[in-house]
Amino acid sequence: MNLKSIFLLSLLLSLIACKTNHQSLESEKQILSIKNSCPEDGNCNFEVIENRKLDIKTDGTGALYPQLSDGKSKVLKFEYNSDQDPRIADDKYTEIIYIEINPKIQNLRLEGKDLKDVQILFGRLCFCREQSGYFTVEKGVFQIETNKDKSVTYTLEFEVPGIPQKIKEFSITNW
């Protein structure tokens, strides 16, 4: 074997190893497709991410953005993606809600200023000047309710003043 063949073989093996690892991590996530809390013009997903924490970072311009890192918390992620018109450039529109909670909490109700007890971050990602980005949620009601069958219902009703929203509430029962 020449040096070029060895290089190509090692590159191929490393790509296969990376892909295998990525697939195993993806299978550990719990992702649920949502219909009842989703606008008709798109699709929604709800994801529970275990053993993570939500870090709210600030970039060089002062804009907020989320970063998930290893931790002992649970992060809930609700994501809405609008249907796109392929004939229109920059037509992508997404809203994302991240909520970091203590995994041991079985029942909880927070309202208004008490929302600071959990981290809630709302993202509006679109080509919409000055109304796109991530924003902390400080106005609303968040509930966790453990049901008799041990399923858990997460409910959020919220508002980010001054920012248009398609998603203002959701209620999801996690299996």
Description of the structure:
- By secondary structure, this protein is mainly beta.
- The protein has a 6-stranded antiparallel beta sheet with strand order 1-2-3-4-6-7, with no helix packed on it.
- The radius of gyration is 20 Å and the shape is globular.
- 14% of the residues lie in helices and 50% in strands.
- The protein is built from 1 helix and 10 strands, in the order H-E-E-E-E-E-E-E-E-E-E.
- Mean pLDDT is 83; it is low at 3-28.
Please tag this protein with its features.
Lipoprotein, four-stranded antiparallel beta sheet, signal, 175 residues, six-stranded antiparallel beta sheet, disordered N terminus
Radius of gyration: 20 Å
Give the helices and strands as they follow along the chain.
HEEEEEEEEEE
What is the terminal-to-terminal distance? 53 Å
For the biggest sheet, the summary is: 6 strands, antiparallel
Amount of beta strand: over 45%
Which oligomeric state applies? single chain
Signal peptide: 1-19
Protein name: Lipoprotein
Keywords: Signal
Set down the secondary structure blueprint.
Layout: H1 3-27, E1 30-34, E2 42-58, E3 64-82, E4 93-101, E5 108-111, E6 119-126, E7 133-136, E8 139-146, E9 152-159, E10 169-174
Antiparallel strand pairs: 1-2, 2-3, 3-4, 4-6, 5-8, 6-7, 8-9, 9-10
Quick gist of this model?
With 175 residues, the protein is mainly beta. The protein has one helix spanning 3-27, and strands at residues 30-34, 42-58, 64-82, 93-101, 108-111, 119-126, 133-136, 139-146, 152-159, 169-174.
